[in-house]
Amino acid sequence: MPKYIMTGSNSHNLTKESEGYYLPNKETFTELRSPRSPLSTQSLSLSTLTLDSDSLDLAINRVADTSIEQLYHNVCEMQSSDQSPSRLSFLSYGEESRIDSELRFLAVGDYDAVKEENEANNTQKTSLRSKSFSCKPPNGKQSVKNLRAFSSMKKERSPHFIGKIEGHGKSKGYLGPYLLKQAKDMMSSGDSNSQKALELAIRAMKSFEVSLTHKPNLDFVMCLHIVASLYCRIGMYNEAIPILERSINIPIVDLGKNHALAKFSGCMQLGDTYAMLGQIENSIRFYKTGLEIQRQVLGEKDPRLRETCRYLAEAHVQAVQYDEAEQLCLMALDIHKENGSLASLEEASDRRLLGLICDSKGDYESALEHYTLARMVMASNGLNSDVASIDCNIGDAYLYLARYDEAIFAYQNALNKFNSSKEENQSKVASIFVSLGDLYNKIGKFGDAKSFLENALRIYAKPVPGSLSEEIASGLVDISTIFESMDEQEKALVT
């Protein structure tokens, strides 16, 4: 019977081999590296491996088939092999090796046996080992049955494990922010697949819902805003409204500025959504709520309050509520004055809006005052296109006041600015031609009026890309009306 070396270094053992001792798998020891179990990422010491076992060969070679069938086959071979002392591991004191237990567990799913092996006393372990090595390998039918049971167990475990990640344990607190970040990245990168981003955002929303506590979660509020935004991006405005309504009920303004900002953002986004559906009254209601939140948190003279005042004023203009719009514009101008931002571009923009409101109310003198102040600021900043647009507004106001010479001068200034500009302004040029045609018609210069109207018709007949069909239709209606007033019925009908 061959002798085995139980102690001493590898170099000492190698010298003993020449004296008659037998050392199987000596190349294993000359490599001076610990074999690694294919089932674990941790290296095992040589003392925990069986010298003459197939499991050692499997670990050293690392080329064996690790499928369930091959693992089971290895177990059967080990159980049917010679029960010599070589079957026992070094320093195991009669216990079977760890890798043998892992192989048997994965092959036949004998979890209870492994658990008993870890918890029972030495006598019970010895009897279990003796029974294991003395029994015959199972027949083919039994092994197939066990393999099928193990395969089904693996298939069932995967979705169950994923479900735990999404709805149970510590992972639920991290999945929501992770999915939300993916959705935000897709939105910010300009990805056209809005539906995919929406699916990710909805999954994030559901994950947040699972982990909700009694405390308001601002990350969840932001998630709701993103879901609603993606719904609006694909035109599903009605689906976005209940989500936004839920989002504005979560933050508590008294808890700080972050909560106030979250509530404000939800109100403004909800107002935008209602505006897209044409429900201007509902839109104005939520804009007002957002303005009140800002006023409560930031104060009456904060520059950010001015932006919301203008936003709400534009909504009132769309609803033909000019008095309310005028009050908001005056409030915005007061904020400019308090913050020393007079003669700024923002102040000029607000003045122009106020001029349009006064113009719509028929207060043309006040409109001209605001137009003139806004024009001066725009001109000093070299914004020729904006200056030309304001000149058109000034010309219209002079036309309503029957100050025709001043109106013609303003219109000519606008034409010169548009023609010198590098931007494509053909539709605006055509509208100026229509206004000049109307002006010359009113002062009885019908020839000049027809000339300007025909110039406008030529532009409308060949619209440049990007021209709005609404502007073209409105211009054609105005031309037809002017021709009809000149008793040019045929041209009016053709137009």
UniProtKB/TrEMBL annotation:
<dbReference type="InterPro" id="IPR011990">
    <property type="entry name" value="TPR-like_helical_dom_sf"/>
</dbReference>
<dbReference type="Pfam" id="PF13424">
    <property type="entry name" value="TPR_12"/>
</dbReference>
<feature type="compositionally biased region" description="Polar residues">
    <location>
        <begin position="120"/>
        <end position="133"/>
    </location>
</feature>
<dbReference type="InterPro" id="IPR019734">
    <property type="entry name" value="TPR_rpt"/>
</dbReference>
<protein>
    <submittedName>
        <fullName>Uncharacterized protein</fullName>
    </submittedName>
</protein>
<keyword id="KW-0802">TPR repeat</keyword>
<feature type="repeat" description="TPR">
    <location>
        <begin position="430"/>
        <end position="463"/>
    </location>
</feature>
<feature type="region of interest" description="Disordered">
    <location>
        <begin position="118"/>
        <end position="141"/>
    </location>
</feature>
